[in-house]
Design brief:
about 15% helix; about 325 residues; binds fe (ii) ion; alpha+beta
Length: about 325
């Protein structure tokens, strides 16, 4: 029961300025430090995304998870016992906590931190339903021109590629003490904390190799997903998938493609697993692996550009 929640992700990228533009357009605060870009949600003390420049192409450097320091010794025993290995810190990053690689070579940094920083309660999102009128004598939607900048509230989860989804589930359960929330066969899987967390804080998708697929950021309500997604898509000019709703986790989503072919997700209304003992993981059919409703999935939504970068370069000649 070691991992408490998600903390951040570190990416090697070719072009820091492209990253700065994209994540600022997405609503994150971006600052330079030690030649890297640190991207975080306004008011949060955590870097959700750190970019290291100078790479030939985008590659996942490591993920960072919040964990219980009282369980660090247990992790140090369980990681090698379950096919992982303890490693030295990635140069230039703090040596605190526990550094490890999972059985597929993905570097992970466990840091002593609470699951998440508590958020202020959002204004109630009111929906009029048949026989249940909760919004009267007032319009739900203001003129578009009056809607100011929308800032994501916090990093909610990340999805990474793995060559073996079932093996990744087992390692994150036995090595790191996480819980399987749900999966769809051996194609996708969603891991939660056993201490209470969103339906998933780390997720896996099957590929030929490891890699970063997306980071997902919470906004206050479904309208903010739509507005933020439309705005970021207009500025990025790249791919998008949404607005829609997932079956697994139930979250409403809108994905915008980043400068390297991976994705930035805005989400709202995700399932919450407060008591893992009361939650029953489901193995869904493949038709539920992507979405419940929404537009057709884009052709390269689950393409691992870290394993196979050529198609994206050809389709987007301006892409790094
Ligand atoms: Fe997601």
């Amino acid at each position: 029961m070691s991992v408490l929640g998600v903390y951040g992700v570190v990416l090697d990228v070719p072009d820091l300025e492209a990253g700065r533009r994209f994540y600022e357009d997405a609503g994150l605060e971006v600052r330079d430090e030690d030649g890297r870009l640190h991207c975080r949600c306004e008011g949060q003390p955590r870097d959700a995304i750190v970019l290291i420049g100078g790479a030939e192409r985008k590659r996942l450097n490591h993920i960072v998870l919040a964990a219980d320091k009282d369980r660090f010794d247990e992790v140090r025993r369980n990681v090698p016992a379950n096919g992982g290995e303890l490693i030295d810190p990635v140069p230039g990053f703090p040596a605190d906590g526990v550094w490890l690689r999972d059985p597929h070579g993905m570097a992970i940094h466990l840091v002593d931190a609470p699951a998440e920083v508590p958020l202020e309660p959002a204004p109630e999102f009111k929906i009029n339903q048949p026989g249940r009128l909760v919004r009267k004598n007032v319009s739900a939607m203001p003129p578009k021109s009056t809607v100011g900048p929308i800032k994501p509230l916090r990093l909610g989860h990340m999805l990474v590629f793995t060559p073996d989804v079932l093996a990744s589930i087992e390692f994150f359960e036995k090595g790191l003490g996480m819980g399987l929330a749900d999966r769809a066969q051996d194609v996708v899987a969603f891991m939660c904390s056993r201490h209470g967390s969103d339906h998933h804080v780390v997720a896996f998708a099957k590929s030929s190799d490891i890699g970063f697929h997306h980071a997902s950021f919470m906004v206050a309500n479904p309208d903010q997903i739509g507005v933020s997604g439309d705005r970021l898509l207009e500025k990025s000019g790249r791919g998008a998938w949404g607005f829609g709703r997932h079956t697994i986790g139930s979250n409403l989503f809108y994905y915008i493609q980043d400068p390297w072919g991976s994705w930035f997700e805005y989400y709202s209304d995700i399932d919450y697993v407060e008591d893992y003992e009361a939650w029953t993981p489901t193995n869904y059919p493949l038709e539920d692996s992507l979405h419940h409703w929404g537009p057709p999935v884009t052709h390269d939504f689950v393409h691992n550009y870290e394993a196979d970068p050529e198609p994206y370069r050809q389709a987007k000649p301006d892409a790094a």
